[in-house]
Amino acid sequence: MLKNVSIAVFLSLFLAGCAMTPVRDDNRVPPESRAEPPVGSTGRYQPPTITPYREPEVPGYARPAPGRAVQALMARAEQQGDKGELVAAASSLERALRIEPKNALLWNRLAHVRYRQKQYSLAASLAAKSNALAGGDSALRADNDSLIRNARSL
Protein backbone atom coordinates (compact mmCIF):
# COMPACT_ATOMS: atom_id res chain seq x y z
CA MET A 1 0.00 0.00 0.00
CA LEU A 2 2.88 2.35 0.78
CA LYS A 3 4.21 1.53 -2.64
CA ASN A 4 0.93 2.60 -4.31
CA VAL A 5 0.84 5.85 -2.33
CA SER A 6 4.44 6.71 -3.25
CA ILE A 7 3.72 6.05 -6.94
CA ALA A 8 0.62 8.26 -6.79
CA VAL A 9 2.57 11.08 -5.10
CA PHE A 10 5.40 10.77 -7.61
CA LEU A 11 3.03 10.91 -10.58
CA SER A 12 1.13 13.89 -9.19
CA LEU A 13 4.36 15.80 -8.57
CA PHE A 14 5.68 14.83 -12.00
CA LEU A 15 2.54 15.99 -13.77
CA ALA A 16 2.39 19.19 -11.71
CA GLY A 17 5.97 19.98 -12.70
CA CYS A 18 5.15 19.64 -16.40
CA ALA A 19 2.06 21.84 -16.24
CA MET A 20 2.47 25.59 -16.72
CA THR A 21 0.19 28.30 -15.63
CA PRO A 22 -0.35 31.08 -18.16
CA VAL A 23 1.73 34.17 -17.41
CA ARG A 24 0.27 37.60 -18.12
CA ASP A 25 2.76 40.28 -18.88
CA ASP A 26 1.11 43.67 -18.66
CA ASN A 27 4.42 45.42 -19.43
CA ARG A 28 4.53 44.32 -23.06
CA VAL A 29 5.53 46.85 -25.71
CA PRO A 30 2.83 47.34 -28.35
CA PRO A 31 3.85 46.44 -31.94
CA GLU A 32 5.16 49.26 -34.07
CA SER A 33 2.73 50.79 -36.50
CA ARG A 34 3.32 50.36 -40.20
CA ALA A 35 5.13 53.08 -42.05
CA GLU A 36 3.02 55.36 -44.13
CA PRO A 37 3.27 54.84 -47.91
CA PRO A 38 5.30 57.49 -49.75
CA VAL A 39 3.53 60.63 -50.84
CA GLY A 40 2.05 60.26 -54.29
CA SER A 41 1.66 56.51 -53.94
CA THR A 42 -1.67 55.13 -55.04
CA GLY A 43 -1.22 51.88 -53.16
CA ARG A 44 -1.04 49.92 -56.40
CA TYR A 45 1.96 48.04 -57.71
CA GLN A 46 4.15 50.09 -59.96
CA PRO A 47 6.99 48.36 -61.79
CA PRO A 48 10.46 49.68 -61.00
CA THR A 49 12.13 52.02 -63.42
CA ILE A 50 14.81 50.30 -65.47
CA THR A 51 17.99 52.10 -66.36
CA PRO A 52 19.72 51.14 -69.61
CA TYR A 53 22.79 48.90 -69.40
CA ARG A 54 26.15 50.62 -69.56
CA GLU A 55 29.37 48.79 -70.30
CA PRO A 56 31.72 49.00 -67.35
CA GLU A 57 34.79 51.10 -67.89
CA VAL A 58 37.84 48.94 -68.41
CA PRO A 59 41.00 50.59 -67.16
CA GLY A 60 43.93 50.62 -69.55
CA TYR A 61 46.42 47.82 -69.01
CA ALA A 62 49.89 48.82 -67.97
CA ARG A 63 52.46 46.04 -68.20
CA PRO A 64 54.35 45.85 -64.90
CA ALA A 65 58.00 46.80 -65.18
CA PRO A 66 60.36 43.90 -64.54
CA GLY A 67 63.10 44.18 -61.94
CA ARG A 68 66.64 45.25 -62.80
CA ALA A 69 68.04 41.73 -62.85
CA VAL A 70 65.26 40.55 -65.15
CA GLN A 71 65.78 43.54 -67.45
CA ALA A 72 69.48 42.73 -67.69
CA LEU A 73 68.77 39.06 -68.42
CA MET A 74 66.20 40.00 -71.07
CA ALA A 75 68.68 42.35 -72.75
CA ARG A 76 71.36 39.64 -72.67
CA ALA A 77 68.93 37.09 -74.13
CA GLU A 78 68.01 39.49 -76.92
CA GLN A 79 71.68 40.04 -77.79
CA GLN A 80 72.35 36.30 -77.70
CA GLY A 81 69.31 35.66 -79.89
CA ASP A 82 70.48 38.27 -82.41
CA LYS A 83 73.86 36.49 -82.59
CA GLY A 84 72.12 33.15 -83.14
CA GLU A 85 73.11 31.78 -79.73
CA LEU A 86 69.65 30.36 -79.07
CA VAL A 87 70.68 27.93 -76.33
CA ALA A 88 72.31 30.75 -74.35
CA ALA A 89 69.30 33.02 -74.97
CA ALA A 90 66.93 30.33 -73.70
CA SER A 91 69.15 29.84 -70.66
CA SER A 92 69.09 33.56 -69.85
CA LEU A 93 65.31 33.70 -70.19
CA GLU A 94 64.86 30.61 -68.01
CA ARG A 95 67.04 32.23 -65.37
CA ALA A 96 64.89 35.38 -65.55
CA LEU A 97 61.79 33.22 -65.19
CA ARG A 98 63.16 31.76 -61.97
CA ILE A 99 63.25 35.33 -60.65
CA GLU A 100 59.84 36.41 -62.01
CA PRO A 101 57.78 33.31 -62.85
CA LYS A 102 54.58 35.32 -63.41
CA ASN A 103 56.05 37.62 -66.05
CA ALA A 104 54.04 36.95 -69.21
CA LEU A 105 56.55 38.76 -71.44
CA LEU A 106 59.36 36.41 -70.37
CA TRP A 107 57.24 33.37 -71.26
CA ASN A 108 56.50 34.97 -74.64
CA ARG A 109 60.18 35.65 -75.36
CA LEU A 110 61.12 32.10 -74.38
CA ALA A 111 58.36 30.79 -76.65
CA HIS A 112 59.86 32.75 -79.56
CA VAL A 113 63.32 31.32 -78.84
CA ARG A 114 61.92 27.77 -78.73
CA TYR A 115 60.09 28.43 -82.01
CA ARG A 116 63.38 29.52 -83.60
CA GLN A 117 64.93 26.29 -82.26
CA LYS A 118 62.17 24.39 -84.13
CA GLN A 119 60.66 23.11 -80.87
CA TYR A 120 57.15 23.97 -82.06
CA SER A 121 55.12 22.03 -79.51
CA LEU A 122 57.07 23.55 -76.62
CA ALA A 123 56.79 27.01 -78.19
CA ALA A 124 53.00 26.68 -78.38
CA SER A 125 52.84 25.55 -74.74
CA LEU A 126 55.00 28.44 -73.57
CA ALA A 127 52.91 30.93 -75.54
CA ALA A 128 49.76 29.49 -73.96
CA LYS A 129 51.35 29.95 -70.52
CA SER A 130 52.13 33.55 -71.46
CA ASN A 131 48.50 34.04 -72.47
CA ALA A 132 47.34 32.73 -69.11
CA LEU A 133 49.47 35.35 -67.36
CA ALA A 134 48.96 38.22 -69.85
CA GLY A 135 45.84 39.65 -68.20
CA GLY A 136 44.58 42.61 -70.23
CA ASP A 137 47.66 42.98 -72.43
CA SER A 138 45.94 42.53 -75.79
CA ALA A 139 49.11 43.09 -77.86
CA LEU A 140 50.94 40.32 -76.01
CA ARG A 141 47.92 38.03 -76.32
CA ALA A 142 47.75 38.66 -80.07
CA ASP A 143 51.46 37.86 -80.45
CA ASN A 144 51.01 34.65 -78.42
CA ASP A 145 47.98 33.61 -80.48
CA SER A 146 49.91 34.17 -83.70
CA LEU A 147 52.84 32.13 -82.39
CA ILE A 148 50.54 29.29 -81.29
CA ARG A 149 48.83 29.24 -84.69
CA ASN A 150 52.15 29.16 -86.54
CA ALA A 151 53.63 26.49 -84.25
CA ARG A 152 50.61 24.21 -84.58
CA SER A 153 50.51 24.56 -88.35
CA LEU A 154 54.01 23.08 -88.66
Automatic annotation (TrEMBL):
Residues 24-64 are annotated as: Disordered. It comes from the Bacteria. Residues 1-21 form the signal peptide. Keywords: Signal. Residues 24-35 have a biased composition (Basic and acidic residues). The keyword Cytoplasm does not apply. This is Tetratricopeptide repeat protein. InterPro entries: TPR-like_helical_dom_sf (IPR011990). The keyword Signal applies.
